């Protein structure tokens, strides 16, 4: 049985700016999750996807990573296409969707103002990501969505940024045996501007699927 990793407390007070923002959101939307968002998926998975942080009207509302906003509308159907998820995705934590050989977390667990966590906030949340990775005994592939997630993974693994440059669909074979790969974040901004297309996103998962075959 995999060891359960440490999770931030539901009323985590480690990042004052995020706490204040969370309290404001709770006042405005008291029926939302409004707290650190736990990881989704089984710890015995071979693939760990690391995102940036919960979206205000996505995971911060629903309590599940990438659920309820545009990023999830792209991520979860892609996971289904490559057999990393099964069931129906309906932007709700109660939709019955299940991940298959995949787990999803965020580098920063609480929603930040304007979707922009600070460097100190990412460092404060780093122990949770480090423990997450160490708890996954079957882990083979790490996928970082965006530069901040990429850097957070490198910090969690005590690796130098200069040795592992971020690039869409870049693949880094680590000395530990892990495969570390990147994608542009599946945000509405990136898809609207053409920085990330559906085909580009699917190419990342096609490569991951081949490595896990």
Q: How many domains, in number, for the residues?
A: 1
The CATH architecture: 3-Layer(aba) Sandwich
What's the CATH H-level homologous superfamily? Uracil-DNA glycosylase-like domain
* Annotation, overall tally of beta strands: 8
Radius of gyration, whole Å: 16 Å
Order of helices and strands: HEEHHEEEHEHEEHH
Assign the CATH class: Alpha Beta
Question: Which helices and strands, and how do they pair?
Answer:
Blueprint: H1 16-28, E1 40-41, E2 47-51, H2 59-62, H3 70-81, E3 85-86, E4 98-99, E5 102-106, H4 119-135, E6 141-145, H5 147-156, E7 171-173, E8 179-183, H6 188-192, H7 198-212
What do these coordinates show?
There is one protein chain. This protein has 213 residues and is α/β, with parallel strands linked by helices. It has a single domain (16-212), classed as Uracil-DNA Glycosylase, subunit E, CATH 3.40.470.10. It contains seven helices and eight strands, in the order αββααβββαβαββαα. It has helices at 16-28, 59-62, 70-81, 119-135, 147-156, 188-192, 198-212; strands spanning 40-41, 47-51, 85-86, 98-99, 102-106, 141-145, 171-173, 179-183. The strands form two sheets. Strands 1-5-2-6-8-7 form a six-stranded mixed sheet. Strand 7 (171-173) and strand 8 form a beta hairpin. Helix 4 crosses helix 5 (147-156). The longest helix is centred in the middle third of the chain and has 17 residues, at 119-135. The chain is globular, with a radius of gyration of 16 Å. The chain starts with 15 loop residues before the first helix and ends with a helix. The mean pLDDT is 96.
